[in-house]
Amino acid sequence: MAVAESPWKLAKDSPSRQLLWELSRLRIYEQEEFYEQLDRESQEREAAHKNALAIAIARHDQVRKDAEAERDRQIQLEAERREAEARREEERQRQARAEREKAEKQRAAERAEAAARAERAAAREREAEAARRKAEKDRRDSQAAEAKKQEQEAAARKKAEDERKSKEAAAARPNEKTQPIISPTQPSLTSKLQAPPQEPRREEEHRRYLEIHKSLKEMRNFLTERAKQDPKLKSRMGDMRREIKKSIGQLREGKGANTVPHASIQKTLKEAVASFPQPTISLANFTASSQPDAQAPALLVFLLNHLSKSVVAQFIKEAAVSPKIADPIGTIAISIFANNEFRVNGHSLIDILIAKMHVVCPPLFGIYGPEDTQEGRTRLGWWREFPEGPWISEQAHQDRMTGLGAGYAALSLRNFEKSKMANPYPPYHFWRALTAILNVPAGHVTETHLVVLKALLTNCEARFLEFFGEPAKKLLQFAVKEYPKRARKGSVAAAVLSNLGETMKKDKK
Q1: What does DSSP assign to residue 319?
Q2: What does the pLDDT read at residue 302?
Q3: What residues of the chain score a pLDDT lower than 70?
Q4: C-alpha angle with apex 22: 18 to 23, nearest 5 degrees?
Q5: Contact present, 304 and 352 (Cβ < 8 Å)
Q6: Are 226 and 233 in contact (CB under 8 A)?
Q7: pLDDT at 60
Q8: Which residues pair with 296 in a beta bridge?
Q9: Torsion-angle region of 251 (φ positive above 0: left; ψ -120 to 50: alpha; else: beta)
Q10: C-alpha dihedral over 170, 173, 178, 181, to 10 degrees?
Q11: For residues 241 and 310, is the Cβ–Cβ distance under 8 A?
Q12: Sign of the C-alpha dihedral, residues 154, 156, 159, 162?
């Protein structure tokens, strides 16, 4: 850079001005050089910044390209993974289907084999039952012939003895007119209303019902074993039994109070008939009368057996305290056994329930024995606290008999005139029970007979008279007036029975 010369350099009269000018120029030069340096540095920094920015842009572009490439690679990997997973899932489902088909074929084969085994077992059972029925029939025929022979001999002896006594009495009292004791049977009644059979036949009938009760236990064991081969049957069998027991426990007095439990019982039994028609069992071992042999669903018999057991238990538990509660229980029980859907070839299975009544309350069927002996108590239905344990108390025994007597009346005094169904246990059975007790010889009348008789008559007078009319009236008079005299001296039950007669008189007034 050229340095300008001071205009005052040659001035001789002004050296200070020349110095001042030079100093100012020097300052200017320094400032210009400083600014030029700043400009150079600024340009250098700008160039560096632009270069760094270009590098950053290039690097960013490279990162973006790398990220896009990685993204595309991951998308491809995910697609390949999903495709592989889909192939594996398809293969797994194919294998599962193959295994299910194989298992189903195996189960079908097992079911077919089980059905074949069951059919073979059923065939063997039917053959065995046929053999047992034949043997049982032969035995009953033999016993019946023997009993008939004994009965005829006893009747002949009794007739001869009666004739002898009549002749002796006529000779001793020629002018005395004999007044007969009121007989429990009346000539005007039909053959169904006659007094119960003589003792040999009565005992045979009682034994037959005890055999039915034993057969029911064997049937229960048979069905339990069969259920082990059929899980569905095993599961539903227990559920159905509990449902029936619960419904029986819900029965109460009152119009319409038992609609729901009654419907529940019917629904359960209908399911048993429809869903479990197999296995079947012969009814020959579960009926007292000589009906044609028939096969019935074992589960239906099993459930009716448990229904009967629950009914008897409710009689003992509820009717012992309040005899009136026996009526709705008996009504529902009879309606179930009357239902045509639960009959077999038109034949009711009511004998299942009656067999249990024979076990728990034999006096209803003319059975007697001394109350102060082990055998006598067993014959009278006196219960034990537990098997082979001590006898229950006398009060507990009489409570049981009260409930069972009221229950039997509720079962046998049902009017089916307005029903389309046939009564499975007509009222003549009530007459038979009453006369069976009244015909017990005087020396064998026990407190148990008196308690059962009182339970039969309590709250049932009107229906008894409705069914049997004047003969029933005479029988009632005999039961509450004359029969208590046959009891032992000081009998409380006899006094209670006599008081029942007074109560009946008051109620009429």
Answers
A1: I
A2: 92
A3: 1-13, 132-133, 135-137, 139-140, 142-199, 290-292, 505-509
A4: 115
A5: yes
A6: yes
A7: 92
A8: 281
A9: beta
A10: -90
A11: no
A12: negative
